[in-house]
Amino acid sequence: MRPIFDGHGDLALFAISYNRDQTATAEEINRREEGMTDTFGRGCAANSLPEMRRAGVGICQSSLAVRVAEKARPTLRSDLNFATHHMAYAHAHGQLAYYRVLEQQGEVRLIRSAEDMNSQWQVWETATEEERLELPVGIIVAMECADPIVEPVQAELWWEDGLRSVMLSHFGHSQYAAGTGVTGPLTAKGVELLGEFERLGMILDLSHTSEESFYESLDRFTGPVIASHNNCQALVPGDRQLSDDQIGRLIERGGVIGAVLDAWMLVPGWVHGTSRPEEVDMGAVADHIDHVCQLAGNSRHAAIGSDIGGTNHMPHDFRTTSDLQKLDALLSDRGYDDRDIDNIFHLNWLEFFRRELP
After folding, report:
1. How far apart are CA 345 and CA 258, in angstroms?
2. Residue 38, CB half-sphere, CA atoms under 13 Å: how many?
3. 308/314 Cα distance (integer angstroms)
4. What is the rounded CA–CA span in Å between residue 140 and residue 245?
5. What is the pTM of this model?
6. Which residues have C-beta within 8 Å of that of residue 249, sequence separation ≥ 6?
């Protein structure tokens, strides 16, 4: 089994907001959620730490997923929206605390430096599949929407807490930038925050960034950039995807682009609430990876950024994290050799983070 470095996951979100035990198997989680209808996707879990181990995922960039919304509902927590940045800050620290207690229990290893990552990968790569079932999964802490950073100067405190990668926005506007589904430039605070990131060495993740904010960020920020979980606009129109020009700009900067498995991002014409995962298969993921490689002229900028949520919005032939391994044969059938597939499965992320982590 080929080892995997996954560029994007939401383990703490599903633990804290959905009350899903991430040390349980997907089957166990779904059994506990049988008959539940309180929120979208109950009974459809596909990912957890045991599933990641079985799939060969040795390292994952996993998020603190919190944002602020003007009309956030005063409800039990099952979404990302909070009324104030102070509340977003507190909830994100709750997710960070979850990763920390998992580390104390030996379930994960938090990766703060290139040395940490190299050590984790060396153990993972040389272990047998059976041995991996008992090993901690490496976690690089990322932030999906910068709203929990209450003020730009606070970025340094988050850095000291182990945060290494940040998206400025998510869906809609953040206090720093425009995100998916809206348009607009960086705010004044966004410009200031990029200055803090550059000083600290923070990685800027341009996923969920509007076109105008995307290009302005690249013009203003000279530090490391990635798109942890994005697909290609040339194959599936929409502002959640990257245009060929955006992909080219990331390639020029030495960035890596992780292919995401959400069905609506894989095929054109998806209609929310009407289209079904049965209409999509894992071959579509390989198509997006191939498109990035064709634009680059090589396999050194494409990777996996799975964003695995539930089987209710994944390709029909994806049931658990182990099905990421299907990409091996799919890429081989498209003419990719072993080195190319290793690049996509783990080497591109490894080389990027070796270069950019402290």
Report:
1. 10
2. 11
3. 8
4. 28
5. 0.92
6. 215, 218
Amino acid at 281: D
What does each C-alpha distance from 283 to 241, 324, 332 come to in angstroms?
A: 18, 11, 12
pLDDT of residue 344: 99
Q: Write down the domain spans for the chain.
A: 4-356
pLDDT per position as a tens digit, 202-241:
999 999 999 999 999 999 999 999 999 999 999 999 999 9
Residue given tokens 């960039």 in the structure block = 61
Bridge partners of 139, per DSSP, are 60, 110
Q: What does the H/E/C string look like for the chain?
A: CCCEEEEEECHHHHHHCCCCCCCCCHHHHHHHCCCCCCCCCCCCECCCHHHHHHHCEEEEEEEEECEECCCCCCCCCCCCEECCHHHHHHHHHHHHHHHHHHHHCCCEEECCCHHHHHHHHHHHHHCCHHHHCCCCEEEEEEEECCCCCCCHHHHHHHHHCCCCEEECCCECECCCCECECCCCCCCHHHHHHHHHHHHHCCEEECCCCCHHHHHHHHHHCCCCEEECCCCECCCCCCCCCECHHHHHHHHHCCCCEEECCCHHHCCCCCCCCCCCHHHCCCHHHHHHHHHHHHHHCCCCCEEECCCCCEHHHCCCCCCCHHHHHHHHHHHHHCCCCHHHHHHHHHHHHHHHHHHHCC
Q: Looking at 18-32, 80-94, 135-149, 308-322, which range is the least confident one? A: 80-94
In CATH terms, 4-356 corresponds, of 3.40.50.300, 2.60.120.430, 3.20.20.140, 1.10.10.10, to 3.20.20.140
Report the length, in residues, of the chain: 358
In the prediction, which pLDDT does 38 show? Answer: 77
How far apart are the C-alpha atoms of 87 and 150, rounded to whole Å?
10
